[in-house]
């Protein structure tokens, strides 16, 4: 991770705080990345990445595990926000209930033997939202899986050459927010190249955006 990028983003965070009005809630820090010369009509130029952040946010991501066998107990013991068993899947056969799930949870994990059934019943709703479950392999450390996703963010490019992602909350130390932002930037640059990053901005939930002067190093 480039320490110079961290310092640049810390400086931009200071500017964001200057223009932001005080609110009665803990605002989210949002990173905006605008891409240049990326044709998002081509499937190979779209991304749907799960990026673990080095510094967890106070509001962790919510994880739903759709499980069978020993994974059911392991997921419950690991404190998954919701565990859906094979027998429970029938409760989510209608679009309304699946939409509600998609709104409530950031990430979905699933046992491999349930993926076909999930694809058939939940896929039409979860797929377009980029929330199809990731597979938990047999004998995997389920707690480690859940912990990883809880400190992760989803980085997605679909129909617009732009990314907006949460990288912190305003009560966090600026250096930790900056490290999170650089982690996301590096993942995006790994896919597209630094030269494709047209513009980078930071903002709080209710503040105007501030431009970040990021150049390839």
Number of domains: 2
The helix count comes to: 7
Number of E-state strands = 10
Strand count, sense and barrel status of the largest sheet are:
4 strands, antiparallel
Q: Distance N terminus to C terminus?
A: 11 Å
Note the run of SSEs as H and E: HEEEHEHEHHEHEEHEE
CATH domain class name of the largest domain? Alpha Beta
Mean pLDDT: 92
Give the C-alpha Rg. 19 Å
Shape: globular
CATH architecture of the largest domain: 2-Layer Sandwich
> How do the strands line up in the largest sheet?
8-1-9-10
Task: Return residue spans where pLDDT drops below 50 for at least 5 consecutive residues.
Answer: none
Binned, the helix content reads 25-40%
Superfamily at the CATH H level of the largest domain?
Ribosomal protein L1/L10, rRNA-binding domain
Q: Determine the strand fraction and express it as a percent band.
A: 15-25%
CATH topology of the largest domain: Ribulose 1,5 Bisphosphate Carboxylase/Oxygenase
């Amino acid at each position: 991770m480039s320490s110079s990028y961290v310092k640049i983003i810390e400086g931009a965070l200071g500017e964001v705080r200057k223009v932001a009005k005080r609110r009665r809630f803990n605002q989210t820090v949002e990173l905006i990345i605008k891409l240049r010369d990326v044709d998002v009509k081509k499937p190979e130029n779209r991304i749907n990445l799960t990026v673990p952040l080095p510094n967890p946010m106070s509001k962790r991501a919510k994880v739903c595990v759709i499980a069978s066998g020993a994974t059911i107990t392991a997921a419950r013991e690991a404190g998954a926000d919701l565990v859906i068993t094979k027998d429970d899947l029938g409760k989510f056969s209608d679009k309304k209930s699946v939409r509600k799930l998609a709104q409530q949870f950031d990430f979905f994990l699933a046992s491999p033997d349930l993926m076909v059934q999930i694809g058939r019943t939940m896929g039409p709703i979860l797929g377009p939202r980029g929330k199809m479950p990731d597979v938990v392999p047999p004998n995997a450390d389920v707690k480690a899986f859940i912990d990883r996703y809880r400190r992760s963010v989803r980085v997605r490019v679909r129909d617009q050459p732009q990314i907006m992602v949460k990288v912190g909350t305003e009560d966090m130390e600026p250096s930790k927010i900056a490290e999170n932002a650089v982690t996301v930037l590096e993942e995006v640059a790994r896919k597209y190249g630094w030269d494709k990053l047209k513009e980078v901005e930071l903002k709080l939930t209710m503040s105007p955006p501030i431009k970040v002067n990021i150049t390839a190093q």
